[in-house]
Structure formats: structure tokens, C-alpha cells
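subagent[fold] <- orchestrator: predict structure for attached chain, return C-alpha cells only, no commentary.
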Amino acid sequence: MSRKAIYWLCNLGGWLVYVLLYGLLTLSFTSENAWLLFIIFFFGLFFSHLLRLLIVRFDWLRMPVPILLPRLVSAVILFSAILGAITVYTQLGLALKSAPEASTISVGTEVFVRTILGFLLIFVLWALIYFAVHYFLNYKTAEIENLKWQASITEIELNKLKSQLNPHFVFNCMNSIRALIDENPIKAKEAVTQLSNILRNTLMMGRNRFVPFSEEWKVVTDYLDLESIRLEERLQVEFQISPGAENCEVPPLMVQTLVENAIKHGIAKLTAGGKLSVSTRKETKMLHIEIRNSGQYKGNTDSDTGFGIANTLQRLSLLYQDRASFRILNETNDRVLTELIIPIS
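subagent[fold] -> orchestrator:
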């Protein structure tokens, strides 16, 4: 239902209730008094709508209170006085019609003032309700627009981060393939095929905020297969994926980025290589992802490592606010733990 329809429904209903109560409390429902109730209903509806037209025409809703108040009070008093006069003189006319033998019927000042004050109260209540509803609706509209704006900004930032991830990921894979071209051209061709599969998946994932863990894991395993060609026996991998984790949603390329950091800045720097293990578990509506790799974390701030960690932290903040956690630390002297905890949606 539109705002205009709601306005007319409330305005008509409000004045109808008022005249019915007015009739029950002050009058009997005779044919003459029915005319009086109709006059009150018609002109009450007319002047309340005229007040709304003034509010809309002169944009009173946006006026500061010191400027609005004298205008609104003047209009309310004027309309109350006019409607009061119409009501009183209609009553006089009906009284003369019902008692034609009376040449004159006088109305005391007290009755006239009481009638005007009654309508003044009605118009004040009408104005208070009208302004309260519109201020509330405008506040909610502004709040919704602000949320939409914040969401659009968040979407832009996320897309920017994902667009940065793809080149970062591709360049590292291309470096791995370049090392194979002279040593083993056949494996290099296989690596190109694997890279094309990874790129196809990542390009599709780049359109989404979240993907099932099973799709993210497919990218991770393809990447590990690619790296195992380069590192050969220097890379040992171990997986412990808990049942049900495949259906949990995760940010695309986030786990792959952390695995890539573990290899590039941990295992690849060790002469003898090392071991990479990835495990998941579900606890109280949270998905725990733990990545362990041989090596030692020194709080590196170089461009590659800093990019991966900073990107992860920023994306977690945008997507989950404070409901997710991330940490990287030395679990032992020769083993690094990267832990990611995100809500299960």
C-alpha cells in the first residue's frame, strides 16, 4: 500500500471515528444531527487535507522547529476557528429549523470557545501524528539508503580486493611454470593445463562473495598439484577435512591465498622442503580452518606476505565485521600455524 493510500485511509478513518464519538457523547442521532455530523466530517477532512497541502507545498517537514512552529500554530488555530464557527452556526441553523416558533437563538461565548478548543485539540493531535509518522518514515528511509550505500561501498572494496588476488595468484603460478619450461617441457604443458583450470574456476568465483568450501578446496588442490611439480619431494601435504565442511561457505580464494603464503614463505625457503597440513572442523556454528607448514614466521612485512595477510584481514572485516578471527603464529620452533575461524552461514 502506498503512502498516499495510507494517508487517506487514516485521515478518513480518524474523522469518521471522531464524528461517531462526538455524536454518541453530545447528540442524539436524529436526521438534523446527522447533517451536523456530516458537516463536521466533511469540513474536518477538508481542513486537515488543506493543512497537509500547506505542509507539502511549503516543505514544512524540512523546516527547523523555530521556523516551523509559528506557521503550524497559526494554521492550526485558523482552521480550528473556522471549523468551530461552521459547527456552531450549523447547530444554530438546525435549532432554528427544529423550533420555528423561536425568532432568535443565541449561543454563548463559552460554547463557541469550547467548540474551537475541541477542534484545536484535534488538529494538534493530527499534526503531531502526521509529523511523527513522516519523521519516522524519513529516518527509516535515510537509514535504508545509508545501509545500501554502505553495502555498495563494501561491494566495491571486495571486488577491488578480489581483482588484486587474481593477478597475484597468476603471477606466482606463472613463475612456477617458467621454472619447468627448460627442465621438463611435458610437465610444463601439464602445468599450463592445470593453471587454465584454476583460472576458469577463480574467474567464476570472482563474481561471488562466498563459495562452498568444496569449490574453494578444488582450487587449493589444483594449486598444490601445480606447486608439487615445481617442489617435487620437497613438498609433503596432508589433509583432514571434517564431514560437512564441504557445504560451508567461505570467501573465494581466501584459503588458497593462505596456503600459497605457507608454501611460498615457509616451505619453499627451506632447503629440505617441509610439510603442509590443512585441517577443518566445525564447532558451535563456526568453521575452523587450520594450516600448518614447516618454517618460522617472523612477522614479515614484505610486499607478498604483507599483501596476503592484509588482504585476508580486510576481507574478513568487510564480510563478517567482528564475527570472524584470523591469526598466524609460530606453533613450535619449526612449524607455523595459520588459523582462520569464520561463521557458518
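orchestrator: received. Logging for downstream: The chain has two domains: 3-145, 184-343. The first helix runs from residue 3 to 26.
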